[in-house]
Design brief:
The chain is about 0% helix and about 50% strand. It has no helices and 20 strands.
Length: about 240
Amino acid sequence: LDAQGHIITGGSPDERDFDPSGPRISPDGRQVVVRELTENVRRGDLWLYDIASGVRQPLTTGVNASAPEWTPDGHRVVYRLIPDTGPAEAWSVPANRSGPAERFIVMPIPILRTVMSPDSRYAVVTAVDPKTGYDLYLVDLKGDRKPQPLEQSLFNETSPAVSPDGRWLVYVSNESGHNEVYVRPFPAGGAHVQVSADGGSDPRWEKDSHGIVYRNADRFMKARLAIGTNVAVTQRDL
């Protein structure tokens, strides 16, 4: 990282190979967790970078971890672990390395990514079902931790994120024939509303839970939402 926290790529011997899909900035903006690739690019581990000092520390070692996400309080990092046999699992590790990593979600199908609700009660898991493809599952971490279908269809549902107020879920689906961004109530079910127009991916909530930033091809869009009992898109801007 440079002094501004940007990941440097190039030919320096001190530079490392990163998985471009992995970097995640901590909730306090002080640290970045990245996946560093080994010589075998199919394997990698998670490293934590302090933005101010540039110090790097390992979070995992030799376990083939990927898809890191911070818990909302910034105390732990959730990630996907791909064992040598069997489907991928969801694990978490203290960001300050004060304790061992723990496996907290196991499914009979591969887990791709896990994100947490703001209160850390729920996990939303993206997993791959051989019959229905990419689906979203809800795990109550204060309950039996049994994954329940959240968005499951013959289409692909990916890229979930829970709003900062914990009331809404944004995700991507290709039900229209190409990827678009949708919002629905969370954690209870309800009608979903299309947020993007002419394509959308990689949605992220704004802090007030009334705006969503998403990618449309090679540009970023921002949608403003009117939220009451239902959701309506009031504006889209570049």
